[in-house]
Structures are given as C-alpha cells and as structure tokens.
Amino acid sequence: MSVVIETEEHEALREAVAALGRRYGRAYVTKALDEGKGPEELWNEAGELGYLGVSLPEEYGGGGGGIYELSLVLEELGAAGCPLLLLVVSPAICGTIIARFGTEGQKREWLPGLADGSRIMSFGITEPDAGSNSHRITTTARRDGDEWVLNGRKVFISGVDISDATLVVGRTEDARTGKLKPALFIVPRDTPGFHRTMLDMDLAAAEKQFELVLDDVRLPADALVGDEDAGLLQLFAGLNPERVMTAAFAVGMARYALTAAIGYAKERQVWKTPIGAHQAVQHPLAVAHIEVETAKLMMQKAAHLCDVGDDLAAGEAANMAKYAAGEACVKAVDTAVHTLGGNGLTKEFGLASLVNAARVARIAPVSREMILNFVSHQTLGLPKSY
Ligand SMILES: Cc1cc2nc3c(=O)[nH]c(=O)nc-3n(C[C@H](O)[C@H](O)[C@H](O)COP(=O)(O)OP(=O)(O)OC[C@H]3O[C@@H](n4cnc5c(N)ncnc54)[C@H](O)[C@@H]3O)c2cc1C
Hints:
With 386 residues, this protein is α+β, with helices and mostly antiparallel strands. Helix 5 (88-101) runs antiparallel to helix 6 (104-116), helix 8 (279-307) packs antiparallel against helix 9 and helix 9 (311-339) runs antiparallel to helix 10 (353-363). The protein has three domains: 2-119, Butyryl-Coa Dehydrogenase, subunit A, domain 1; 123-225, Butyryl-CoA Dehydrogenase, subunit A, domain 2 (Beta Barrel), CATH 2.40.110; 231-379, Butyryl-CoA Dehydrogenase, subunit A, domain 3, CATH 1.20.140.10. It contains eleven helices and eight strands. Strands 1, 2, 3, 4, 5, 6, 7 and 8 form an eight-stranded mixed beta sheet that branches. It binds flavin-adenine dinucleotide (FAD). Residues 122-217 form the Acyl-CoA oxidase/dehydrogenase middle domain. Belongs to the acyl-CoA dehydrogenase family. Residues 231-375 form the Acyl-CoA dehydrogenase/oxidase C-terminal domain.
C-alpha cells in the first residue's frame, strides 16, 4: 500500500527513522523514565540527522519538506517504542506558525534551533476554565508603551521545563473598544512573572505537563508573532499540524503495541497451537490493524492538505484523522495488552503503561467529543446544542 501512496524518498526517510528508532527502542524510554530524565540523546541525534526540522524551510536550516514528512518521523519513532511528544509542539505548531507568520527576525532567531533541536518551544492555549472551549481563554495582553504585559493562567502545557520559550495564546485588549482578540506571544522560560508548577500526571511519559501563571509578564514589542488581528487564522495554521501529529503519535504507538502482541501470539502456546491460531485472539488483532491502517490513510490525506496550503480542507481532515487514530490506538493497545494475558500487565513486557498513554490521543489536543461536534456541525450541517 505504501508503495502506491509514498515516494521513494518517503520510504527511504521512513526506513532511516525506523533504524534510528530501533537503536533506541522502548528500553531507552523506560530507562529514561526510571532515571527521571527526558529523551535528550534521541532528541539530539534526531535533530543532528535533520529529522526534527524536516518540515521547516531550508533557508532557515530545515529540510524543506512538510507535515507529511514530520508526521512520518513521529510515526516511525513511535512504532519503535520511542515517540518524541514534543515534535507535536516544537517544530509542528510553533515552527509552522513562525515560518508562516513570524517576522524575518523571529524566523532567524528561532527556526534554525527548532530545526536542529538545539532549541525547543512549547505551546500554551489550554486554561483551567477554557479547556475544550478555547474561545473562553482569558489570558490577556495589554500594551504598555513599547511593551506587552501578559496576565493569565494555563494548564496541561507540555515540556515547559525543557523549552527555551512557550508560544502563549492570549487575547489583546483593544484600548478603544475593550474588545478581546486572540494573539500569539513568545514567552522566554526565565521571563520574570512567568511561573510554572509541574502537574502530577499519572502518565509514563518523559515529557512533563505544567500549570503556568503569567503575572505581569513584560515582553518586548517583537514578542508578538504575526498580526494581532489575525489570531484565529494563524492559530489554525499551527493547530491543523498539531492534530495530524497527534494522529501520527497514535498510529506509531498502536503499531508498536500490535507488533509486540502479534509476536507474542505467534510464540505463546498453552494448548496444541500458538494462541495466535485462535480466532478469538487473531480477529481482534486483525480488526485493530485495519483500523490503524485506515486512520493512517486519513492522516496522510490531512498531512497532504496541510502541505498544499488548503487550511480549510486540512482542518476537517486533520480532525477526522486525529479522531480515527486516537480511537484506533486506544483499541489497539487494549487488544495488545489482552493478547499477552497476565504478561500484558507486567513491567517486563511494557504494554500496560501504554493504556494511559494511548488515551492522551483521545483527549488532547481536542477531545473525541469536540471532533464529533465539529463534524456534526461543520461537515454534516447539524444544529449546535451549546
Ligand atoms: C498529556 C497532555 C498533554 C497536553 N499538552 C498540552 C499542551 O502542550 N498545550 C496545551 O495548550 N494543552 C495541552 N493539553 C491540554 C488538552 O488540549 C486538553 O486537556 C483538552 O483540550 C481537553 O480540555 P480539558 O482537559 O479542559 O477537558 P474539558 O474541556 O473539561 O472536557 C472534559 C470532557 O467533557 C467533554 N466535553 C466538553 N465540552 C463538551 C461538549 N460541548 N460536547 C461534548 N462533550 C464535551 C470533553 O470531550 C471531555 O471528555 C494536554 C493534555 C494532556 C492530557
């Protein structure tokens, strides 16, 4: 199938990234977690090899490819058991938004580092009282002379501790009308008034989540990315890639879990044939495989639409891909754990921790229900209940 859809270059990139993933593997992530570390070595090596920056423009140190290539990188690392979650935010959201809407100065300052991985940027939109409903965000940016002053709170923001800066979604306060508009600001990690508290997540992931408080955070005029009046358009230029990348995260993890389960089902024998010979064991694996491959196809379509610049069509496809991949991943991991029987719950086989991790793709960055709402209203034209 992939021969028809992908070019030889894609296949070569897939194989090269898969080889890197195999060298690290799940054991690397497990060890990093036990030591309370992040996946720095893998991140740095992937950066040096050009994989982190594959979607960013060549003139700023990137590979000149698109979200298709970047999603392929995340999928293959995930399929090897070592996904890099921050690929979703640093190059895919922040890199895309800066490349499309940043000033020349912002591009020169940030894109080469985001491309080679030497700099990382996190992304903060979610707020305690504005989760699924991001129209309700209250983080506010006020002009004070040449500066911006930001106040507000964010929650569940990934990787703030290891990010050089966070791209914060706020609202500007229009001095004349008092009207609020969404706008994006680069907030360097050590800016006075920018406080973070690590959340105690029950997740076996190297990347941590944070609650942020912005308390009179003063930023120079050039911290604003893009036009303060074009917030939504700019936001979605980053959010469509985010959904495609979350789909890639889910497809990769699902492939990893299914490969482990299929290998086990071929070996494990408690009657006269391996357990994988029983249809009650093989059919759920076959269903899971079909659903993962179907979701992947939608992900590839969405990535392609992002890369040709059809933001509207990409939005719909990226939402559907994220939904399909999230659901396929949750089911594939559940099926894999069950295939291993008791071993599915041991640390040695390492699948049980994926049960929680898989659900991230169902909740973030936009929940399953909000995608169903979007498709109901935008695609099917049904009325809104809220
Ligand atoms: C591991 C992890 C990493 C994350 N990283 C980031 C990050 O880096 N940056 C960032 O900004 N955010 C991040 N998030 C936040 C994530 O995007 C939010 O958790 C998500 O948008 C859901 O918001 P919420 O948690 O407030 O849930 P809520 O909005 O409170 O929703 C709770 C439940 O109610 C349902 N619901 C709500 N409204 C409706 C409705 N109208 N119709 C039907 N159902 C509804 C939802 O589907 C959900 O099941 C992360 C979250 C996680 C878990």
